[in-house]
Specification:
Oligomer: homodimer
CATH topology of the largest domain in chain A: Rossmann fold
CATH superfamily of the largest domain in chain A: Response regulator
Number of helices of chain A: 12
Mean pLDDT of chain A: 85
Number of domains of chain A: 3
CATH architecture of the largest domain in chain A: 3-Layer(aba) Sandwich
Low-confidence stretches of chain A: 337-359
Strand order of the largest sheet of chain A: 2-1-3-4-5-11
Largest sheet of chain A: 6 strands, parallel
Strand content of chain A: 15-25%
DNA sequence: TCACGATTTGATAACGATATCATCCGCTCG
DNA sequence: CGAGCGGATGATATCGTTATCAAATCGTGA
């Protein structure tokens, strides 16, 4: 209830000047151990704690990191956020979280606000902003920054990414190896960088196997979980329907599982990019390419702390790899070729060739 | 790259004093529209934004809310956090998140740190600290505070809780109504308030039905997901084993599902307190008592903003109710009494029967 | 024309810390 | 014995705002 004690109060009580107190707090040297002792007792007695606002105002940097993320509700980012918060707190830093908003302007404003708070560093999951053109005082010469999950457009800075293309390419090849040729690609926020790379991986794997890419097999969910039309149903009822699904992120996987389950289509193979809570307890258990969001968060924080402590080496690009876990859903074979052919025979695909390809 | 412009710069450019600029920014009155216009142009030209640190230092309150939560990794709290962040940002406030740490001292330190940052208000999920005895300058006469999910020990303040006891009582009664008398209770962090209340609900429902409480049916997981021994197996292999499980929070439910699934015990009934991602896509779909973490977050923020704007009415206690969703797993009947008797008769628990059970 | 209230503006002191430089003190050394 | 030195301490300006009160300005009525 009583106002917080200040340096002044401590100085008064211990009979020294505020500078001496300040020195005791910040640096042990240059102050006699006797007086230091007296000051420390006064600090203890009053329960003094330095005011971080005043300190930041004067020094120009705060004992806090800023995290800009699109949404913490996404379980992937929630896990990452937790890891960042934990690492930051271990280093004695607070974490200020802000979501990026819906437009580049908002994203910019959010970052400017954080910078005005003199955060010591920023971890950013870039969404909509073209960072290179913004001339924000971040990166080399400005506030240290680490980009996570997606690279900043047009800017060189520390970046932590997962090997999206590789992971999905492998996952898709896995499905192909099990006999699938009609593989749907499902994702939320498909226009985002990481999804784009995953999409490339998907296309490349198809290309490697000589399978033509069919845009009608792409399912795009909105990031908003609330209203999802049964988007998957469409690709499963095409004339030449999908026999397997590659879902490209956790939220999409949840949707896909929900849909497959409500359709009772346990014959459809599924590989999920991103592991999720009870993937292994589903029927069938879901084969996944697992990213480690916590590792990502820890890595980003580690790089950021190095920068804050003065590391000026060239920007680093960390590429985390994924772990492929075969659990069952990814190893389902398509219905026999004859089945397929007869099915394909009944119908005419969308625009696609008029006549089914030979064999 | 150039340092942020300050009031001084704007004043210089527009040919007025810094006070006039300050007035233009904070209050339109008392300044001629002509000069105001000039000042606004200068602000625009320089891209000036007020420094929140300096402002907070001077005024004693920051445009930020503080959130203290045990762990954001818990999906329930992640969803709540997202809702809080969203509401706060709509009100033009930042959100500073801090996790409470592992001891009362840490929790106290975290709150003091936030207070030193002059946050306008705090939302706290109290963990270990006895708030009544701490004499923290929060609540009436101090910084507005709203407690969430658990009530503060020994302190009167705005609180948002779910009706834990009711929800679990109903869920347990539901299992009993379906013929179960041996119902396990599973939870993580069982010593916490909300789990305690849920436990009470469980006990009360048993009492209502005249079933004796058996402590050997309680499964306590640690909040740490990493190493969970197969705790559930024990209660399923008792001489008089559980035929149903009531899992008391989301993380426990995930564990229970994992265990039941790996044991292939689809004969065990399950009701989960807390809905979770693909509960309805499991086999069988999981019956749940659903809390709404987003509603909880929004409600808390709403109450807090009212307080910040000067509401001094007596503390409010909001009690959110749960929604019961029958999906299948909670409606499984126990094996017939004869089956049970024969099993119980043949069997010695752990090393499993030597001989396969008949039929 | 001048004095007067009402309004708009400005000068200056906080807020609570740190940076910078000056001062003080006790030593050593010439 | 006094100059010089170095380590400990203190006085003061400063960070970018807002609060407070004083000053300037204006229009108006006697």
């Amino acid at each position: 209830m009583t106002p917080n004690p200040t340096l002044r109060d401590v100085a008064l009580l211990s009979g020294v000047s505020i500078m001496t107190v300040s020195r005791v707090i910040n640096a042990e040297w240059e102050v006699t151990s006797a007086t230091a002792q007296r000051v420390r007792e006064a600090i203890e007695a009053l329960g003094y704690r330095p005011n971080p606002l005043a300190r930041s105002l004067r020094t120009g940097h705060d004992e806090a990191l800023g995290l800009v993320v699109e949404t913490i509700g996404d379980p992937f980012f929630a896990a990452m956020t937790e890891a960042v918060e934990e690492s930051a707190r271990k280093a004695g830093l607070f974490l200020i979280i802000a979501s990026a908003g819906k437009s580049p302007e908002e994203e910019r404003a959010v970052i400017l606000d954080l910078l005005h708070r003199s955060v010591s560093g920023l971890i950013i999951v870039p969404c909509l902003l073209a960072y290179g053109k913004e001339r924000l005082p971040i990166g080399a010469g400005g506030v240290p920054v680490v980009f996570v999950d997606r690279p900043p457009i047009d800017l060189e800075a520390d970046t932590v990414l997962v090997h999206n293309e590789d992971g999905v390419r492998h996952a898709t090849a896995h499905l192909i190896a099990h006999g699938h040729r009609r593989i749907a690609f499902a994702g939320t926020g498909i226009e985002r960088f990481s999804l784009q790379r995953r999409f490339e991986g998907y296309c490349n794997a198809l290309g490697d196997a000589g399978i033509e890419y069919d845009p009608s097999l792409v399912v795009s969910y909105t990031p908003d979980t609330r209203d999802h039309p049964p988007a998957l149903t469409k690709v499963l009822t095409l004339r030449d329907p999908a026999t397997a699904v590659l879902s490209a992120n956790e939220m999409a996987s949840l949707e896909v599982v929900r849909e497959l389950h409500s359709l009772a289509r346990t014959d459809i193979a599924l590989v999920s990019f991103d592991d999720f809570a009870i993937a292994e307890s589903l029927t069938p258990p879901v084969t996944v390419a697992r990213q480690d969001p916590a590792l990502m968060g820890r890595t980003a924080t580690y790089l950021l702390l190095r920068r804050i402590r003065g590391d000026t080496s060239p920007p680093r690009h960390v590429l985390l790899s994924t772990t492929f876990l075969e659990r069952g859903s990814g190893e389902i074979e398509p219905r026999s070729t004859s089945d397929l052919r007869s099915q394909a025979g009944t119908g005419l695909p969308q625009p696609v060739p008029v006549r089914a390809p030979p064999n």
